[in-house]
UniProtKB/TrEMBL annotation, chain A:
One of its GO terms (cellular component) is plasma membrane. InterPro entries: GatZ_KbaZ_carbometab, PTS_IID_man. The lineage of its organism: Bacteria, Bacillati, Bacillota, Bacilli, Bacillales. It is found in: Cell membrane. It is a multi-pass membrane protein. This is PTS system mannose/fructose/sorbose family transporter subunit IID. GO terms for biological process: phosphoenolpyruvate-dependent sugar phosphotransferase system. The chain crosses the membrane at residues 128-153, 159-180, 201-222, 242-263, 270-289. Pfam families: EIID-AGA. Keywords: Cell membrane, Membrane, Phosphotransferase system, Sugar transport, Transmembrane, Transmembrane helix, Transport.
TrEMBL record, chain B:
It is found in: Cell membrane. InterPro entries: PTS_IIC_man. Coiled coil: none annotated. This is PTS sugar transporter subunit IIC. It comes from Fervidibacillus albus.
Length: 290, 271
């Protein structure tokens, strides 16, 4: 029986951290996936979800009340990221970092896995991964499924709603679990995972596919046409037919590229762009040009 | 003029609350909230007209095409918009284009409600601190999951219920009065152009300016092949192949990758 006191933690085998298994990581991610946006607040954003997700792992690691409370507080600091890319990698990463920290505390070693190191890792990754995750998951993959299903919805089929929902929701759970496991096994080297050629190629492929699908959507679903007709020296002249004979789709394309140009000049001001576009289209429609 | 029954209004209100509280299957609510499709389907089931509801919902989906929330702020709430606009359009037997006129303002109001939810949760968060202090795991569950969910239901159910039960017939009447006027031509034009917002937003957020080539390529493909009725699935496969070719050529040109191991995307995982 050891009775040596180090770091004010009694060094006895009853307080030994339990092993964190792959199942624990899966469970932690699924808890995060469920809690994700439920307690979203202005103060800490998604931190309570991360704490609730990590709680069973923290219970297994810290058998000392003060150490456990400190760990709870560590995972309740400001946190905001995207569900799967950010949430997946960071839950896996935090599990492996907390495991290392618990081991250091139990063995009475010098603490290398400091609070600062843990929080900086979390803070450093959460924004970058949210950017990638949002544009790939919500912005690209979700809309690829929706784009495929829209024609079914237009024909009155319930498949138009069920297909994108089921496929996208399933995709998100799977990709999130994948990232959580990767985050756990790579430990502190999560940045190398994100910089690996494989992941970079996948991101590039999805970005291109996203732009491609947006082009298809713009061609099929942006409906802007001129209703202007007048007669020149007795012959009827239809503006839209003339435009179609020069460059089909020129008006929808002008509108999309116009908004894109607006963003490059003013930054991503979606609501402003929405109001301007509504106003311009409404005026042009009222005076009979569109 | 038909109206919604008390039960129909209540079921739709409960569905919206379940989605907006983000507690219905957790992360799965992301697409339930961003897309009006599932909410439209639920409305169709409740009102006994799934085909009619899906047609209207498809029109609403088009104006929210490509919209998502980079960084968490949404200009509009498509699910709430569909919950009000689809019943109104079905009751008033309106054109899908007219449903958009209802959806847009409702969606904007909905986004304020969603912001208000963060405000409520900020106060509930104070109790989370107390539970952590006491290491009270039950308290953590209640303050992180249970209370925010209940608060959302208390916020969304009454408002959506009132809007449907008393508001929907009134809105439908107003829109019907506008039919045949220039106002509806304006709505049609605006509705037809709004899909451009989401598309342009997505192009901007993906953020690789030189890749706009792929957008232009696809745009002209879809215009040229419009008469061939190529499905979206076919286009998605084509797009994947074009993207894969590009990535392949590019990574072959790079020669040796910079020191990073070429980890395959799905090694050592076991779904």
């Amino acid at each position: 029986m050891m009775t040596e006191i180090k770091n004010n933690v009694a060094f006895d085998s009853r307080k030994q951290p339990e092993e964190i298994t792959k199942r624990d990581v899966t469970k932690t991610y699924l808890r995060w996936h469920f809690a994700n946006e439920i307690p979203h607040s202005f103060e800490r954003y998604l931190a309570p979800s991360l704490l609730w997700a990590m709680r069973p792992i923290l219970r297994k690691l810290y058998k000392d009340d003060d150490a456990l409370r400190a760990a709870y507080e560590r995972q309740l600091l400001f946190f905001n990221t995207q569900l799967t890319w950010g949430g997946g990698i960071i839950t896996g990463l935090m599990a492996s970092m907390e495991q290392e920290r618990a081991r250091e505390e139990y063995n009475g070693e010098e603490i290398k896995m400091t609070d600062d190191l843990m929080y900086n890792t979390k803070a450093g990754l959460m924004g970058a991964l949210a950017g990638i995750g949002d544009s790939i998951d919500s912005g690209t993959i979700q809309y690829i499924f929706i784009a495929i299903a829209i024609p079914w919805a237009q024909n009155g089929s319930s498949l138009g709603a069920l297909f994108p929902f089921i496929f996208f929701a399933t995709y998100q759970v799977l990709i999130g679990l994948f990232f959580a496991r990767q985050g756990f096994t790579t430990g502190r080297n999560a940045t190398t995972l994100m910089q690996s050629a494989g992941i970079q190629n996948v991101i590039e492929l999805l970005s291109i596919l996203g732009l491609f699908m947006m082009g298809i959507l713009a061609g099929n679903y942006v409906k802007v046409s001129s209703s202007l007709e007048f007669s020149i020296s007795g012959r009827p002249f239809n503006v839209q037919e003339t435009l179609d004979s020069i460059l089909p789709g020129v008006l929808p394309l002008t509108v999309v590229l116009g908004i894109y140009w607006y963003y490059t000049k003013k930054g991503l001001k979606v609501t402003q762009a929405l109001l301007w576009l509504t106003l311009i289209l409404a005026v042009l429609a009222a005076i009979g040009i569109l | 003029m038909e109206t919604l029954s008390l039960w129909q209004s209540l079921i739709i209100a409960l569905w919206v609350a379940a989605v907006m509280s983000r507690s219905l299957l957790g992360g799965a609510t992301l697409t339930l909230r961003f897309s009006p499709l599932m909410t439209g389907l639920i409305v169709g089931i409740v009102m006994g007209d799934v085909p009619g509801a899906m047609v209207i919902t498809a029109a609403i989906q088009l104006i929210y095409m490509g919209v998502f929330s980079p960084g968490g702020t949404m200009p509009s709430e498509p699910s709430i918009a569909a919950a009000i606009a689809v019943p109104v359009a079905l009751l008033g037997d309106l054109e899908p284009g007219a449903a958009i006129a209802v959806a847009v303002p409702v969606g904007l109001l909905g986004s304020y409600l969603y912001q208000f939810r963060f405000f409520i949760n900020t106060f509930i968060g104070k109790w989370t601190d107390k539970a952590v202090e006491k290491l009270d795991d039950g308290g953590i569950f209640r303050t992180v999951i249970l209370y925010p969910t209940l608060a959302s239901f208390l916020l969304f159910v009454p408002l959506v219920f009132i809007a449907l039960y008393w508001g929907a017939p009134v809105i439908a009447d107003v829109i019907e009065m506008l039919e045949g006027t220039v106002a509806l031509h304006i709505l049609d034009v605006v509705g037809g152009g709004l899909a451009a917002i989401g598309i342009a937003t997505t192009i901007y957020v993906i953020g690789r300016r030189e890749y706009i080539i792929f957008f232009l390529l696809a745009f002209f493909m879809s215009v040229i092949f419009a008469d061939l009725n190529i499905t979206m699935v076919t286009y998605a496969i084509l797009g994947t192949l074009i993207a894969a070719m590009f990535v392949l050529v590019k990574s072959n040109n790079k020669g040796v990758t910079t020191g990073s191991t070429n980890a395959d995307f799905d090694d050592d995982d076991d779904f």
